[in-house]
Amino acid sequence: MEQHVTEEWEKFSALLSKISGYNEAIGLLHWDLRTGAPRKGAEVRSRTVGMLSGESFRLETSAEMGRFTEFFSRPAIMNQLTDIQNKIVKDCRKEYERSKSIPPERYEEYAVLAAHTETMWEAAKENNDFASFEPFLSKIVDFKKEFIDYWGVKETRYDTLLDMYEPDLTVKKVDEVFSRLRSRLVPLVEAIAASPNKPDTEFLNRIFEKDQQEKFGLFILEQMGYDFDAGRLDESVHPFATGLNPGDVRITTNYLLDNVTSAVFSSLHEGGHALYEQNINKELVGTPLAQGASMGIHESQSRLWENMIGRSLPFWQRYFNDLQQHFPAQLVNVEVEDFYRAINNVSNSFIRIEADELTYNLHIIIRYEIEKLIFNEGLDVKDLPAVWNAKYQEYLGITPPTDSLGVLQDVHWSGGDFGYFASYSLGNMYAAQMLNTLRKELPEFDEWIAAGNLLPIKEWLTDKIYQYGQSLTPSQIIEQVTGEPLNPDYLADYLEKKYTELYKL
Amino acid sequence: MEQHVTEEWEKFSALLSKISGYNEAIGLLHWDLRTGAPRKGAEVRSRTVGMLSGESFRLETSAEMGRFTEFFSRPAIMNQLTDIQNKIVKDCRKEYERSKSIPPERYEEYAVLAAHTETMWEAAKENNDFASFEPFLSKIVDFKKEFIDYWGVKETRYDTLLDMYEPDLTVKKVDEVFSRLRSRLVPLVEAIAASPNKPDTEFLNRIFEKDQQEKFGLFILEQMGYDFDAGRLDESVHPFATGLNPGDVRITTNYLLDNVTSAVFSSLHEGGHALYEQNINKELVGTPLAQGASMGIHESQSRLWENMIGRSLPFWQRYFNDLQQHFPAQLVNVEVEDFYRAINNVSNSFIRIEADELTYNLHIIIRYEIEKLIFNEGLDVKDLPAVWNAKYQEYLGITPPTDSLGVLQDVHWSGGDFGYFASYSLGNMYAAQMLNTLRKELPEFDEWIAAGNLLPIKEWLTDKIYQYGQSLTPSQIIEQVTGEPLNPDYLADYLEKKYTELYKL
């Protein structure tokens, strides 16, 4: 590298490191607000978060950032950079151009509206009052349509939104994988609904003391290889994982006294996210690459641990005895096979976040199809409840009795997060495809799980996925790991096999 | 206020509010590091704290800050400001001028050295090796002497340092109050040493479970009127209080299993600091006045609660029964009078932070006299151990057997904090003087404490002290509250009365 290029890179690194410092501070302020900050400090605290976010955004869109990304994108300079350096430049430039393309006053109006719309959504959901929410949501949609114009339309207008969460993902690709998935899942869901082999789930809803739930959760996280010297477990209303830096990746869970599995599976899920971030190569610290490759790849790691490992029979052949020891009275006389069937109970229900592993994907497909209608077909916001209910009837055979149980259930749209939902099912698809390779490369996969020997799995994932952080794109990762592009059949195969056996179809 | 002045004030307020946002974030990052942040994240975290501190310092010393403080200090503009606004301008200008007077490259060299010297101090203390520490400490002292030249010498060179922690305090004043105090305390300490009436303290050092200690601490904090909706209690190696904003003032304590009083009194102490910050007028939020008036006034509030209330007989007449209920086995057959005598045991010891209420002041006076020798009389750093030991022999009748138990015991000097120690005894003096007025204005003071009716005391302190934050100077506060300037006789009177009775002198 020429001397002046080295010098410029050092200055650029200092700027990136400053941005990442802001993000660490903002992350901790958020974590603290959700885990135990006193309520009377929240108002000032929110202003502080706003101030720091503003500073970070100012740096990301600064003239300096513009100059650096332009300079390092010149072919003669690019040639002197490593692959990782080029990826950093590319990602920063994309972010810079995306942010700069929106007139600042329009972005500010949008940010204020989005914050307000989230508040309106909370009230609307509570009062089952879509009409009060509709004018705000319409404005959010209008803003997003305006932003798509600033950002530039790819193949279709909705592609622009998908790309924000899953780089290079297109409607064409999602349509293909979702329709293949849907065509295989809908009959499976119907067959299960018709099956007489319903599991007994009553014992999952006895009263389980919080202390014991917490102890068991800590034990499972340790078994997964979660590093408590680089993280901690706390309690919050909604479970989450937050990577402040790769040496400080925190997770939270929520304990329901009358539901022993909720905290177990949320710990496995958030633990999966956290293992990813804890094992990102330390050399990426202080750069925008020290995070997951995309929302979908991140979700694949949480789903792999939560569902494909955590809801498997070998896992509970090893750990059910431990769970019973934590709750001897509640789980007396329960057999591991009955427990396994209970935690995999399929039921066509209204609420996405409570859905089982199988029908979850249909909840996502419905949202994806509706978002596509809004942005590519001009579906009017006022028609959302009707479209929503029709799709639930078509795919799940049930019609939400109220909008609170239907179109009003998720927070995402009120905050302008269109294009995000697809990542959840992409995560499941990536995970199943990775699982297939994992089983081939580690043929003793099931035996190891049944023996509680989980660390080789964590090591394989670190080697193949975790360490790279965002230095590879989602498509590079899935192809590098599995040798082929995203293929929804792995998920469909996995689900068909699992549920055919479970429900003796 | 003229229109253009109003507009300028709004811009100035935005700058102040941004600085205070940085300080809130830095405060939380520190709190988190000390209460439970995972160790592997600490290195990146320290860099983040450094970055944010740098940003905050940059704003405090910015050209903008210079322009604002110059503008608002013009007589024609000052006339249009409220008292509080004028105090804000005055404090910001003082800070600005102090910081700007040091050449940035010298300050940076100093900051690096100070950080390194703290590390060297830790090792030197552990190895009882003053010689290895001496060259570093010498450089710190040289830097401080150089800074005094930049800052400007007041009456004596050491005055410049005192003023940083206690505005307008001078050697002349401290000499006067400390010599009066010393002349009354030394004979009292000698009389106690000669007294045959030694209390039994054995029962304080039985084994006390942490859970019960925590429960009792929470109970006492609640009794004091500490607002748990605007704060929280956590555990850390060294107890501290930190006001992130007046709606979020956190305290920590440390539990020693074989010492039940350590956590109780540190909770009362930190609780006193926290009550102060929780009750600062909300209108000061986002300005530099939303903090205590000075180190000494702050310390007066912690000492008042810890010692004058918390180590009083009426307090334990009310609460000893509660403590016994938390530890029935450990405190069986202990009478409240015996407990009261035990917690007020006087013993001439080497370590300041473990000293009793009485001899504590002598530890401080020794440090003050030594600092004065260094900065006003040219005492050489290499002679510190000898001077230290001689003073301990003179005032406390004991000679430290090692430097670790002597001159190496405190962290302050290694970080360049000269001028700070005096605040601790000033706090005791302010507190005793305030207590005298408090007893006059609330004649039922002792009966109320004995009845557990502590809230009127908190209200009186809020009314007279807490609410003002830093909008009054320390001298304004002590004169407004007690009608006279700082007078050391109140502390001497209080201690003489208390210990004459306790030791039947």
How is this structure best described in words?
Two copies of one chain form a homodimer. Chain A is an all-alpha fold. Among the domains of chain A are: 3-101; 202-348 and 444-473, no CATH class. Chain A is built from 21 helices and three strands. Chain A has helices spanning 3-35, 42-60, 63-73, 75-78, 83-101, 104-127, 130-151, 157-165, 171-194, 210-224, 260-278, 295-309, 313-326, 336-343, 360-377, 384-396, 422-441, 445-450, 455-464, 474-482, 489-502; strands at residues 233-235, 241-245, 248-253. Chain A has a three-stranded mixed beta sheet, with helices on both faces. The termini of chain A are far apart. The relative contact order of chain A is 0.12. Chain A binds chain B through residues 17-18, 21, 24-25, 28-29, 32, 36-45, 47-48, 51-52, 55, 227-232, 244-245, 247-248, 250, 285-286, and chain B through 17-18, 21, 24-25, 28-29, 32, 36-45, 47-48, 51-52, 55, 227-232, 244-245, 247-248, 250, 285-286. Chains A, B: Zn(2+) binds at residues 269, 273, 299. Chains A, B: It is an enzyme of class 3 (hydrolase). Chains A, B: Its cofactor is Zn(2+). Chains A, B: Its EC number is 3.4.17.19. Chains A, B: Pfam families: Peptidase_M32 (PF02074).
